[in-house]
């Protein structure tokens, strides 16, 4: 829809969001003149918008890089030393697995379930299960349940574990009411009560111990002998019908008989939890083989290779130059200094010799892993990796894990985000109260700051990323040997770049985002000013067209008057 308005400065038309001069009295294309003039004003904004778009592409690329970098840290976590890792609490080398083999071929799942934690020691154990622990069960005679029993009295109920409660019964209570009263107190008694429907009109009460190998106890304390009336006890006060006696679990472990109240055996073999399910057949046994979780270690190694190759593919894409010297549009981080620095540092670590325990495995190539022509990793000899895991697990652990050895155990390593292996003597001074006053290496100060009992490496020094704790009673010298394991060193490097709050990549993303905010503000200001300028030009040209139109009208009027005068004279 178009609207037209005539102002003191000329005729202007607005169609939708477009405003232009409607008159063409001058013969000039005034609207094109306005468009060209405004375009000249907004050219700088177009350049700024292009810069914002380029920055957005970089931000997206940086975020992709951040994800790939952190994936490497995640993959290495199971291989890093937990004590010196920012994220790990246990690792694949600590994890244990248990293999079960029955001597008679019985499915061991029908006999027991076994798990092991990091504290379990590797070893083999022979076990037989003589009997399972069972809870005691007693039953009463069948009784009508939907009528008031007319009993008034009380009885105590409990188990040999020590808990008990008094159950009070009134004349208006039915059998179900008594069951409900007993169950309301089961937290104290350790006894569950249920009703089994025997026929359409009768039910049998069953009492069950909540815990295995605990004897149920019950005795009338006042009023009617309700236990006898219900058919639970006989004339002597003993249970009339014991459906199942309480019994312990009995197993034999490497020839030693073990008895427990429950089928959950978590204190027989340190670090191993055993849940008994069934008894072994006479003359048969089950062998428990506790061993390192070899599968977990191998999975962690191959996961690292996958994560590393994904990052390497990204780096290659960003650094490739075509045969004609052209750079792909996907290489938005081409020649980026952060990318180049990270790539060089990572390549350096990948080729660094390391072994925390002085073992035979010192390079990743010792695991059967080789570098392809594009610097990606290839598991070229899986048998070499398998051999290292199965036969040389200690050296493998020494390759991946960081080792910290102080001459004084009072010195604790609190933080290790360094990638350096160091061997130095730390000279610490303390006042008479034991407060740390300084820390030097080889007489050189400025390498550490001290605060309380903390000693922190200064940024820019060889000790950056290290933090120690020491409770000292006076001046002391401590020899320190820190050997960075492959997993800890690479993970520390990746965390320094990929940390989503303070990593170098995040800092770059934040900088570009802030830059874009400023550029967007500049662009908006330029375009706003240009629109104001557009309106000024429109009004100016509208006024001009109005004046030209008026001049032409006057000219026509004069010509008409002259023509009329000439005609009258003749």
**Adjacency order of strands in the biggest sheet:** 4-18-6-14-15
Q: What gyration radius follows from the Cα positions, in whole Å?
A: 44 Å
Low-confidence stretches: 1-10
The number of E-state strands comes to 28
Report the major sheet. Answer: 5 strands, antiparallel
Describe the structure in your own words.
By secondary structure, the protein is α+β, with helices and mostly antiparallel strands. Among the domains are: 96-133 and 249-292, no CATH class; 137-244; 403-483, no CATH class. Helix content is 35%, strand content 27%. It is built from ten helices and 28 strands. The protein has helices at 30-76, 175-184, 186-189, 226-229, 294-319, 337-350, 382-391, 393-400, 486-498, 504-569, and strands spanning 2-7, 10-15, 18-21, 96-102, 112-116, 123-131, 137-139, 153-159, 164-169, 191-197, 203-209, 216-223, 241-244, 249-253, 256-260, 264-265, 272-276, 286-292, 369-371, 377-379, 403-406, 412-416, 422-430, 436-441, 448-451, 454-457, 466-469, 476-483. The strands form eight sheets. The protein has a five-stranded antiparallel β-sheet, with no helix packed on it. A four-stranded antiparallel β-sheet has the order 10-11-7-13. A hairpin with a 2-residue loop joins strand 14 and strand 15 (256-260). It is extended, with a radius of gyration of 44 Å.
């Amino acid at each position: 829809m178009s609207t037209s308005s005539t102002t003191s400065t000329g005729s202007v038309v607005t169609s939708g969001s477009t405003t232009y001069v409607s008159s063409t009295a001058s013969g000039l294309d005034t609207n094109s003149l306005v468009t060209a003039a405004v375009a000249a004003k907004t050219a700088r904004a177009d350049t700024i918008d292009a810069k914002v778009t380029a920055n957005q592409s970089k931000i997206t690329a940086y975020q992709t890089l951040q994800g790939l970098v952190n994936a490497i840290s995640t993959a290495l976590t199971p291989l890093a030393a937990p004590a010196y890792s920012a994220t790990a609490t246990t690792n694949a080398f600590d994890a244990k697995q248990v293999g079960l083999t029955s001597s008679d071929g019985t499915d061991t799942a029908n006999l027991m379930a076994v798990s092991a934690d990091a504290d379990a020691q590797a070893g083999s154990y022979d076990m037989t299960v003589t009997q399972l622990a069972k809870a005691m069960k007693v039953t009463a005679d069948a009784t009508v349940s939907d009528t008031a029993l007319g009993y008034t009295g009380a009885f105590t109920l409990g188990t040999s574990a020590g808990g008990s409660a008094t159950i009070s019964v009134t004349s208006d209570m039915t059998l179900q009411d008594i069951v409900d009263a007993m169950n309301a107190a089961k937290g104290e008694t350790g006894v569950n009560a249920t009703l089994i429907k025997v026929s359409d009109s009768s039910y049998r009460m069953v009492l069950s111990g909540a815990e295995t190998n605990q004897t149920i106890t019950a005795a009338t304390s006042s009023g009617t002998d309700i236990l006898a009336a219900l058919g639970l006890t006989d004339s002597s006060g003993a249970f009339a019908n014991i459906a199942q006696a309480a019994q312990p679990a009995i197993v034999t472990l490497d020839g030693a008989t073990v008895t427990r109240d429950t089928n959950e055996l978590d204190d027989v073999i340190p670090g191993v939890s055993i849940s008994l399910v069934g008894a072994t057949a006479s003359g048969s046994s089950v062998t428990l083989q506790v061993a390192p979780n070899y599968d977990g270690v191998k999975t962690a190694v191959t996961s690292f290779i996958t994560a590393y190759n994904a990052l390497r593919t990204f780096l290659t894409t960003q650094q490739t130059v075509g045969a004609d010297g052209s750079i792909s549009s996907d290489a938005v981080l081409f020649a980026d200094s952060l990318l180049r620095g990270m790539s060089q540092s990572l390549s350096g670590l990948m080729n660094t010799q390391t072994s925390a325990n002085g073992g035979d495995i010192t390079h990743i190539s010792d695991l059967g892993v080789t570098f392809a022509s594009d610097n990606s990793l290839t598991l070229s000899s899986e048998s070499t990796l398998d051999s290292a895991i199965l036969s040389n697990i200690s050296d493998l652990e020494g390759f991946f894990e960081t080792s910290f050895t102080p001459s004084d155990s009072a010195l604790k390593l609190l933080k290790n985000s360094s990638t350096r292996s160091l061997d130095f003597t730390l000279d610490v001074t303390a006042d008479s109260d034991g407060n740390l006053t300084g820390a030097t290496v080889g007489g050189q100060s400025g390498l550490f700051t001290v605060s309380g009992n903390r000693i922190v490496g200064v940024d820019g020094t060889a000790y950056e990323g290290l933090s120690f704790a020491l409770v000292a009673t006076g001046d002391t010298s401590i020899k320190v040997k820190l050997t960075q394991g492959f997993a800890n060193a690479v993970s520390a490097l990746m965390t320094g770049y990929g940390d989503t709050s303070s990593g170098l990549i995040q800092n770059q993303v934040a900088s570009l985002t802030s830059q874009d905010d400023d550029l967007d503000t500049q662009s908006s200001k330029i375009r706003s000013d240009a629109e104001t300028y557009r309106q000024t030009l429109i009004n100016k040209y509208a006024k001009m067209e109005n004046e030209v139109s008026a001049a032409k009208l006057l000219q026509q009027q004069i010509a008409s008057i002259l023509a009329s005068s000439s005609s009258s004279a003749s």
